Amino acid sequence: MFERMREDIQGVFHRDPAARNAFEVVTCYPGLHAVWLHRAAHALWTSGWKWLARGVSNFSRWLTGIEIHPGAVIGRRFFIDHGMGIVIGETAEIGDDVTLYQGVTLGGTSWNKGKRHPTLEDGVVVGAGAKVLGPFTVGAGAKIGSNAVVTKAVPAGATAVGIPAKIIVKGDDGLEAQRQAMADKLGFDAYGVSQDMPDPVARAIGQLLDHLHAVDNRLEGICGALGKLGSDYCAKDMPQLRDEDFAGVCKDQGDKPAA
Ligand SMILES: CC(C)(COP(=O)(O)OP(=O)(O)OC[C@H]1O[C@@H](n2cnc3c(N)ncnc32)[C@H](O)[C@@H]1OP(=O)(O)O)[C@@H](O)C(=O)NCCC(=O)NCCS
């Protein structure tokens, strides 16, 4: 037990630059108090002392402003920064090294019994005021932006922001433009199919467009090389390949496509 308390305190130092010393952390971090009281409440809950467990949880809420249902399963080094206004539902599951800021709700969207709250895998960070609602999984290392409302699964390592939350992807502008160009060339309407969509069908279409782009490039290279050798095969037998499609390749090689 003391080992786990020690790593909880270390976890605060890792994730809050404002923490100065162990005494301050133990006495002035309501997030820590809530986690420790939850461990007691959860032990009572799983031993069948349900009312007592709810009593401890309610006392913790009164003391810290953080409401954790005693049935929630929480991993190691869970850190709640500031804490006030956090609600964690009965069937929520939280992995190791997860961080929540103030005002976060891990809630349900149905009144049915059974799993109705989210699962947060290891290393997830949920920003201040975010609401994560439903029995889906937020993958390991994912980040939820402050004030986001998340209603669908978030892949591991992704960052989700906004209402409803969308996955943001950085530094892939070129890929998006390339997919759009390929879709235009094929006469395919790619409206609404963007790389940041978690939809598996949209992702598959995006990957097909990438593959077509790669095949096209390879074909252009082959046609350029054939043209250089004096063949007019590409121009004659593959009229769908316009001259300008491989003009660049031939130009690179100091040649013109065969007529
Ligand atoms: C979501 C978050 C983790 C993203 O951090 P990041 O990976 O460094 O991303 P960036 O700051 O570079 O932002 C990327 C884009 O998302 C947008 N964005 C970031 N956070 C956002 C949020 N909460 N809501 C909506 N959009 C957000 C940025 O404006 C930026 O948009 P742009 O590319 O159009 O300019 C971070 O912004 C966040 O909200 N962290 C929670 C922090 C918190 O709650 N602190 C409380 C301390 S008391």
Automatic annotation (TrEMBL):
Instruction: Cite a GO CC annotation.
Output: cytoplasm
List its EC numbers: 2.3.1.30
| Main localization of the protein described in the UniProt heading | cytoplasm
One function term, GO molecular function aspect: serine O-acetyltransferase activity
The entry's localization annotation reads: Cytoplasm
Q: Which domain of life is it from?
A: Bacteria
Keyword Amino-acid biosynthesis: yes or no?
A: yes
Q: Which PANTHER family is this protein grouped with?
A: SERINE ACETYLTRANSFERASE
Q: What is this protein called?
A: serine O-acetyltransferase
Q: What is the lineage of its organism?
A: Bacteria, Pseudomonadati, Pseudomonadota, Gammaproteobacteria, Pseudomonadales
